[in-house]
Amino acid sequence: MSLVVQKRQTDNATILSCMGRMATHEDANQLLDAYWESVKSTPHVIVNLERLSILGSLGLGALILLHQWASSSGRQFKVAGSTGLVHEILEMTRMTDVLSIYPHEEQALAALAASAA
Q1: What is the pLDDT of residue 115?
Q2: What is the rounded distance in angstroms from the CA atom of residue 117 to the CA atom of residue 109?
């Protein structure tokens, strides 16, 4: 199953829930396009990887780009719900040291709220 991205909004963030695999160029571009569409209406983005089964190098590259774009524009970008193999890949590549990663979406939302206070 290729990547499916579902979007939903809160008061100050868009949550992009990723399902399936993020391993191809098309998958990575789908996430990048969803990000750009999201920041038109909300200042911050959370990518939820809870239902992602595979994270390939192109998907990892997309997460890094999102982090860089958000940082350079004063926005916040957070990752939530990485488990199993996906979380192992993030740990092995040391992206856990670079990205703001939270076990659950609710914790990422709380971190956004705390930084706004």
Answers
A1: 85
A2: 13
- Give CA–CA dist 60/66, Å, rounded: 10
Is domain 4-112 classified as CATH 3.30.750.24?
Answer: yes
Q: Do residues 78 and 47 make contact, with C-beta atoms less than 8 angstroms apart?
A: yes
How far is the C-alpha of 35 from the C-alpha of 78, rounded, in Å? 12
Higher pLDDT, 66 or 12: 66
Q: What is the pTM of this model?
A: 0.94
Residue 64: CB atoms within 10 Å? 14
